[in-house]
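During the reporting period the student researcher (J.K.) took over the structure-prediction task from the postdoctoral fellow and processed the backlog of single-chain submissions. One of the processed entries is reproduced below for the supervisory committee.
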Amino acid sequence: MANALFGPAAQGLLTGEIDLDTAAIKAAFVRGYTFVATHKFVSDVTGAGGVLNGTSAALTGLNVSTAGVVDADDTTATTVASAANHSVLLFQASAVTGGADVAAGAQRLIAYLDSGTSLPIQPGSGATAINFDNGANKIFKVG
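J.K. obtained the following structure tokens:
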């Protein structure tokens, strides 16, 4: 599998249901999950056997270039238990206008990252760095 956007995320980005400018976007390690393009919420991932194993704070330095390339500062996921073969999920954790996190059933999936430098990742216990790609497509490219 290669890195991919979830289908409903592409729609959400176009309709404003997912807002990269004002909402809290987070990254989480996930294991035991096989990507399904039609999944829309974090609860779809966990319902399909995916286990979230550490989540970052809201991403900082999040930006979208004129070419549709999305990037953010590298981050750290905390409370990661040691286990093998994790991918990274990006999701909108809060309502579009920011504020407190919403329940997993309302947290919108954005992207699934399972290939790139250090992916799949083998986190240890404690805080583990998530270093986003610095290549031409950064975290992901829309379009």
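The committee noted the following: The chain has a mean pLDDT of 83.
J.K. will present the remaining backlog at the next meeting.
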